[in-house]
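Table S2 (continued). Query chain:
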Amino acid sequence: MSKKVALPLDDDDDDDALAQRISETAKQQGIPSLTPAPISSSSAGSRRPIKVEVSDALFEALTVAAAQQRVTKRFLILSALRDAGFPVDEADFREDGRRLRGSRKA
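Corresponding output:
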């Protein structure tokens, strides 16, 4: 039986140092690490979420229009904001990959 060695988790350790220690220990013991992948910085700058409550009728209309045009509701809303004169970059229209992963049918 292997002997478990507990590494102390000091309050003084910064997150990067702790993540590095977790990754090294996981490699040594051959177990998966729970450390997240590094977040890449986008050229469009930082993004912030926005939540808007709409009527059932508007939600349904957006859902139908998005399905008919084969785009996301996010795309429709960003397009409308751009058309209204708000500064929307082309990078804001890039897919996040979810739709691409689910559409492998040719």
